[in-house]
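Take a careful look at the protein record below. Let me know whether the structure tokens fit the sequence:
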Amino acid sequence: MLDKIQVRLDSWFVRHAQGLARFLAVVTGLIWGIDGGLKFSPGLVAAFPSMVQDAAQGQPAWLQGWFHFWYLQVSADPALLVYLVGTLELALSVALLLGFLRKVAYTGGIALSLVIWAVPEGFGGPYGPTSTDVGTGIIYALLFVAFIVIDATFGRGPYTLDGWIIRKFPGWGRLSDIRHYPERPPAD
């Protein structure tokens, strides 16, 4: 009896993988939108250099050059970097919410997540006996990898702007689809 329930549950997830992934992409887009909007909060620009400097505290000596480099970049023009990251996060949010340029959004999301994880989150560290968190950036990067795997496995999900555009302009799939579908079936 339990085996039959498990098989039904497993097949339900498989049958609905695209819809579940689309729902997860929308929720992730909402989170990125909130995060991107918060980058435009008053006071963040002034506080950002110290956030990067604080991320260096307690890190191993071999990572100090990395954080010093980023502290110098951020200190030179904190508004540029804060607003650039905020704008990229908002663009990523829109792409996820609409299902637009998914290939670009997912790969860009991996890169942006790793930069956030590596600089202001300090690789989630420093790590020691009381460490309990690896940071959120690495988890977001893995989530974007999961989106790529789902798209590559199951193809383009329903309810995406990319799907609508591809129906009008089939070549759009080269920009948006992880697994590109040929415009014409191959000749036998």
About this structure: The chain has one domain: 21-176. The first helix runs from residue 2 to 15. Residues 184-188 have pLDDT under 50 and may be disordered.
